[in-house]
Every structure is written in C-alpha cells, then in structure tokens.
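Continuing the batch. This is chain 6 of the set; chains 1 through 5 are on the previous pages. Same settings as before, nothing changed between runs. Recording input and output for traceability.
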Amino acid sequence: GAGIVPTGTLQLEGGYRYSRVGPDKMHTLGEALLRVAPAEKLELRIGVNSYLVSRSPGGDDSGFGDGSLALKYKLLQRGEGMGAVDLSTILGTTLPTGSEIYRENKLQPWTQLILEWNINGDVVLSYNFYYGLASSSGDQYNTFGSGIAFSFPLADRLGCFLEYYGIAVEKGYGENTSYLDGGITWLLSNNLQVDIHSGAGLGETDPNYFVGVGLSFNWGL
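Output for chain 6:
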C-alpha cells in the first residue's frame, strides 16, 4: 500500500513462508522489516536478514539471505475516506550481508511507485509499478513488475486482500511470471495484526506456489 507509518512510531513486520518452484523448495524464516517515520511523509525501511533453508535435487543449503535498506516517500495525498487517492514511491537496495551461499556481492537497487484509491470507504484498490536491477552470481540484469490489489473488510477486525502481479525479466536471464495471491488479516489489538496468505504462478505446468503467515506490531517511541 501507499501508507506511511505514523510519525513517532516504530513498526516491526515479520513471518514465515514456504515456497516451491518446480523441484526446488524454500523455507524463509524472519522476513523482518523495521519501519519508522523520521519525518512527515518519509519512512525508513530496514530489511533484516531472513534465515533460509533451500532443498533441491542438487542438494540442501541453509543460511542468511541479504538484508535491505529503503526509503518510502508520500508524493501525494488527496482527500480522506471514500474517494481518497494516495501516491507513494520507494527507493531501496539489497545489502550484501547474507551468508556466502546466498549473498550477492553487488547491490540490487529497486524503485516502486504505488497508487492507492479508496473506492467506497471499505474497498481499497492499489496499483504497484516496479523496476529493479537484479544480480545472480555477480551478473546484473533488469527486472520489471506491476500489480493490482483489492483489500476490503470481512468483519470488524477481519480483513481480506486479493492481488495479481507480473514480473518481466531481461531476455536471457529467466522466464516472465505472473501470480495470483490473497490472504486474510486479523487485527488482534489496535497495534497487533496477524495474517495468513498464499499464492500461485499462473499458466505453470510445474509446481509454483507459496504459503505463509505474518505478524505486524506497532508501538510509540
């Protein structure tokens, strides 16, 4: 989404995900993201290294993935409630801080543009546009992505989201993919939320899916 955490608060998000692409399986534990707003409309985002366990026909590996650092800025906010429009951008990069088996020694910068529209007070529509400079074994290549998501309430503290997104990779560096995913969020208290989510690649003949759980906690500084 296009939202920024409130100034004077710190938000910690994390979770676990299991993913599979063909015969390759991956467990990701942590997915920790620290979000703090040092100024109005500006958010600092620190991605803490996740612990990864990968299993494939070629062997099993484990260790920490790379961390990340990013800034998110609110470019536009028009109105509140029904009909409100928010526009934000993110500029970030990975950091070569992971274990040797997973670390990419080159930075992998990316930028995102996020447009959010409150349709009727309950249903929120989000558009996401992405460009990144990815790296594999030191070889860098361009990636592009875009997505659309709907979020809406199911009950007083229960929410739902549905998303479609696609990723295009520079020719010669992989296949283009598209995914459909969704999840349910449960607000346990005013500053604590849990979620479950899952998604799958579209038009794939081999297994290509993920499932996960998440936790978000926000507290004042």
